[in-house]
Amino acid sequence: MLLVTGGAGYIGTHVVRALRSGGREVVVVDDLSAGHPELLPAGVPVEVGSVLDTDFLMDVIDRYDVDQVVHLAGRKAVDESITRPSYYYRQNVYGMQSVLAAMVRMDVRRIVFSSSAAVYGTVGDATVTEEAATLPQSPYGRSKLMCEWLLRDIAAAEGLSWAALRYFNVAGAGGKELADRGVHNLVPRVFQAIDRGEAPAVFGDTYDTPDGTCIRDYIHVTDLADAHATVVDAMDAETMGTVYNVGCGCGASVLDVMRAAREASGVPFDWRITDPRPGDPARVVADAGRICAELGWKAQHDLDDIVGSAWEAWSASRAAAMTASKQGAALAVGAH
User: Fold this and answer.
1) What angle do helix axes 303-335 and 254-265 make, rounded to 10 degrees?
2) Would the pLDDT of 64 be above 70?
3) Residues labelled as active-site residues
């Protein structure tokens, strides 16, 4: 049985679906602070609790006979981490320590960890390999790097097999019901502004990039989920202790995303330039050659696919919310 922490979240629901489609049995642990367990496949058990509670994790591992962990749970907003660093270090770093402690005590020997490209910081013009210097520019990025250090050291001491997947910018949706509702992520923030009839904010246009806005590597969430399933399968056959970049290997600027959102939505909106955010590097694009060469995984979707699927899911979510609101109003009228 696989334990997926944070499995009811946006990325988690996609990862669980990919694992289940490959025939895996999965149990989810989630505190439901941002989770939607109703979006998980039928029959997937959800244990509600915090990864900070080691005894709780040990009990779940024992009751479900867990033999491998996919650790997704954590906090991930760069700007929030700057204003709440203590919270981020506790949730992310202590959360990782708690998961590893539960695994060691219960003799679970394999783990796939959700890391981040934020561990790199500013990387210049070239694509970034896993050997690049890790100089994160935010408490969020530093917390993820500290988690990797914990993982390496405890795995070496305890004989664990592990892989850390350094995600780049995740977006899109694997179905109309699987919209990204994250208030800190660029694509849903653009859609929120469109719905309100406002101009989406672009944080800075004086970066050292062709159009002055930040360049990122955007990866479709279904590609990311498939990467997890690929690594889990490979870990069955061999002992691992490695880091993989998970991205598409091509960069898109914030303005590229704005134009893709115009195309997908059909709304000819304008954007507004605001001050740059602290902790935002100018350019971060993956070299994902290692995971391709070693495991055969490669991203399949481009920016138009990503933003188009995200808009379709966002629109479906908005329509469902409007229907529910009308039904609630009708029931309220009927009650009188």
Assistant:
1) 50
2) yes
3) 140
Question: Per-domain residue ranges for the chain?
Answer: 2-171+220-247+286-300
CB-hemisphere CA count at 13 Å for 46? 19
Q: Which residues contact 114 (CB under 8 A, 6 or more apart)?
A: 6, 11, 70, 71, 72, 74, 165, 167
Longest dimension (CA), the chain: 67
Q: What angle do CA 38, 11, 110 make, to 5 degrees?
A: 105
Place of tokens 């509600």: 48
Strand pairing report for 215-216 and 252-253: antiparallel
HEC string for 245-307: EECCCCCEEHHHHHHHHHHHHCCCCCCEEECCCCCCCCEECECCHHHHHHHCCCCCCCHHHHH
Among the listed residues 48, 13, 153, 137, the one whose alpha carbon sits nearest the alpha carbon of residue 96 = 153
If phi over 0 gives left and psi between -120 and 50 gives alpha, with beta otherwise, what is residue 159?
left
CATH class of 2-171+220-247+286-300: alpha beta
How high is the pLDDT of residue 237? 84
Residue pointed to by tokens 């025939």: 23
How is 219-252 classified by DSSP, letter by letter? EEHHHHHHHHHHHHHHHHHS--EEEEEES-S--E
Q: What is the mean predicted confidence (pLDDT) over 265-279? A: 92
Distance CA(320)–CA(298), nearest Å, equals: 34
pLDDT at residue 329 tops 50? no
Is a pLDDT exceeding 90 seen at residue 334? no
| pLDDT tens by residue, 91-130 | 999 999 999 999 999 999 999 999 999 999 877 767 899 9
Q: Does the pTM of the predicted model rise above 0.90?
A: yes
Using pLDDT thresholds of 50, 70 and 90, give the confidence band for residue 319.
Answer: confident
Q: What is the pLDDT of residue 267?
A: 95
The answer to whether the CB of 114 falls within 8 A of the CB of 74 is yes
Question: Average pLDDT for residues 236-254, to the nearest whole number?
Answer: 93
Output the pLDDT for position 335: 56
- Is residue 316 within 8 A of residue 177, CB to CB? The reply is yes
Name the nearest CA neighbour of 89 among 145, 8, 136. 145
